[in-house]
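ingest -> validate -> predict -> emit
validate: passed (alphabet ok, no gaps, 349 aa)
predict: started
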Amino acid sequence: MKILISEENFIHNISFLKKKYNKNILPVIKANAYGHGSEIIVKLLIKNKINQCVVARISEALELLESTNIPKDFQIIILETVEKKDLKEVLKYPQLIVTANSEKDLLNFLDSGIDSQKIQLKIDLGFGRNGIVLDDISKIKKIILEKGLKFSGIFSHLFSVEYSKGIEFIKTFENILNELGRENFQMVHLQNSLAISNYGSLPFVTHLRPGMFIYGFFEDGAYEENLRKVFFLEGEILNIKNIENLEYLAYLSKNELKNKNLKKVAFIKIGYGDGFLKLNEGDTVLINKKPYKIVLITMDNTFIDVDDKVKIGDEVEIYWDLYSSKKWLNMNICEYLPILSKRILRELK
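emit:
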C-alpha cells in the first residue's frame, strides 16, 4: 500500500483559495501534513514557489530541515512554544520562525539573541489555548516601544463559535493589532479553514492559514466548493484464499467473525501497525469500482470479503470516501488521517 499525493490537486486548492479570497496562503503541514506526508508536501511547496508553511512543534521543523533541501528564504512557522533548550536550533536555522505565546516566551527569545523579525506573537482571544492573554497586551506594547521591535507576524485562532461572537473576537484582534502597531508586523493571520468559510476575506489580514482545505476536504461547519482531494491510499491484492472449509482466519475462529459464512478473502498489506485502526472493520474498500467489506484487521494485514470477480493484482483503494469513513469511524477526518504511519510510502500520483 502507498499514499499517492496529487500535485495537481494540491496546487489547485492553494491557487483557488488565493484567488477567491485575494490573500496569501500559509499552508499548515503539522501532524505529518494531516497524514499526507510533510516531506513530500514541503517539496511541492518549494517546487511551486510557495515559500512559507506552518508546523506545530520544533521537532516537526527540524525533521524537515534534516530530510529536505529547504532554501534559506523558506519560512517554517512553529506554533507551539520552543523551549529554552531548543533555542540554539532556532539560531542555527534561518528558516525557523518561533511563536511567543506569552510575555515570558518573548523575553526568553530576545534574551537568547533571536531577532524579533524571526518571532510571531500569538494572541489568546479567550479560548484557553496557547497565546498571550488579553491582560498582558499592555506589557507587550511596552516591550515593543522600549526595544523598537518589528516582528515576523501576529496571529490568533478562531474557534467554532456563533457567527456574531466570532465577529466580536475579530474586532478584538483588530483592536489589539492597532494598539501594538500594524506597521510592526510583516504578516497578520487569523483564519483556519473553518474561519475562512465563516468570515471570508478580512481586510486587515495578509494571509489565510488553512489546513484541511489545502488537502481538499472539510469538517462540520466548514465548506468550500471546487476543492479537490489530494490523498489516495492505494495498493493491490496480494493474495486470495478460499477459507470456506477453514475454522480460522488469522488469529480468530471464524465463529468470532460477524460474517460466519465467509468463502473467499483477499489480503492487502496494511494493518493497525500502520495506523489503519481495527475500527475500520466493517467499513469498505474499493476494488474495480465496487465496494467490498473489511472483515478483519491485524497489525500488518487487512482481510476483505471478496467474490470471484476479484483477482490477485487488482487495485484496492482505502478511505476512498473520506466522509463515509468519517461516519463509520465516528472520527473527524483530521483525526484518522494523521495517525497513518510513516511506514506507508508516500509518493506523487
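DSSP finds eleven helices and 19 strands in the chain.
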